[in-house]
Specification:
The structure is a single chain. The protein is of the alpha+beta class. The protein folds into 3 domains: 71 residues, Orthogonal Bundle (Multidrug-efflux Transporter Regulator, Chain: A, Domain 2); 34 residues; 153 residues, Multidrug-efflux Transporter 1 Regulator Bmrr, Chain A. It is 37% helix and 25% strand. Strands 4, 5, 6, 7, 8, 9, 10, 11 and 12 form a 9-stranded antiparallel β-sheet that branches. The chain has a 3-stranded antiparallel β-sheet with strand order 1-3-2, covered by helices on one side. The longest helix has 35 residues. The protein is elongated, with a radius of gyration of 30 Å.
Length: 273
């Protein structure tokens, strides 16, 4: 039999760790001297400790090791841990891809944009289709739409936080006469009227880029977002959205307008990220 200090040297494990394993019931001393209180271990326990160390180095938490030691299904526990490690590797690979993309931008002196992945939950919206000749038409049509809704449904409330966006419905970019869908999140559905539809927009994930400045200058923000999607293991999963945060209604200076470019995404089938 070996005292705890001697056993610690043989096992190359600290006394503090051995005491902890004793406290949690993972590796109790073979005996405790009733007169001195010394913990005593035998040589056979070196094998038990070696197995514990092996599982710890594989990343298993103490609780799962204790389950194995007490007769739990080691195969099932290890398979589950393996799946968790694979998920962790995939998440870290995605982080690495994003870091490499940022480094590439910094090296090339690229545009001052950053991209994040956001989850947009399912929500009730109202929406209406328009043909907009220029961006200036937004400033006429949107206030008029708000007044029409307040007149029809004075109890209708916008969601908090506010979320309004447009989707370009054309199959290609046009310099004028763009066919767009304007949408705004609300707290409840109402009956459709006068071309205004109420519906539930499904949840989705988006690549998000913030643009500060006039709407006419948003092209580089879209370009940045689409390049990020392509280089980070995603693919486009729907029509891009333009979400309006600050604009002519609360900022006089166009350089202070804040707009969010949102590209619906899903993991690409061949993605390793």
């Amino acid at each position: 039999m070996f005292r705890i200090g001697e056993f610690s040297k043989m096992a190359m494990t600290t006394v503090k760790t051995l005491r902890y394993y004793d406290e949690v019931g993972l590796l109790k001393p073979r005996e405790v001297d009733r007169f001195t209180g010394y913990r005593l271990y035998d040589a056979a326990q070196l094998v038990d400790l070696h197995r514990i160390q092996s599982l710890r180095q594989a990343g298993l938490p103490i609780g799962q090791i204790a389950r194995i030691a007490s007769g739990g299904d080691a195969g099932e526990i290890l398979r589950r841990h393996s799946m968790e490690l694979e998920q962790d590797i995939a998440e870290r690979q995605a982080m690495l891809s994003r870091v490499q993309f940022i480094l590439k931008e910094n090296k090339e002196g690229a545009m001052p944009y950053t991209t994040t992945v956001k989850h947009i939950p399912e929500q009730a919206i109202y929406c209406k289709e328009y043909t907009m000749r220029t961006f200036a038409d937004y400033f006429k049509e949107m206030p008029a739409l708000g007044e029409k809704l307040r007149a029809k449904y004075p109890d209708l409330k916008c969601a908090v936080p506010a979320y309004c966006y447009t989707v370009n419905l054309d199959r290609e970019w046009r310099e004028t006469d763009n066919h767009i869908l304007y949408c705004e999140a609300v707290t409840e559905l109402k009956d459709d009227f006068d071309g205004i539809r109420f519906e539930v927009a499904p949840a989705l994930d988006v690549a998000s880029v913030m643009h500060q400045g006039p709407y006419e200058d948003m092209g580089p923000a879209f370009a940045h977002a689409l390049e990020w999607v392509e280089q980070n293991g995603y693919e486009v999963a729907g029509d891009p959205r333009t979400s309006y945060i600050d604009g002519i209604w609360n900022k006089d200076d166009p350089s202070e307008w804040l707009t969010e470019v949102q590209i619906p995404i899903r993991k690409a089938a061949n993605s390793q990220a």
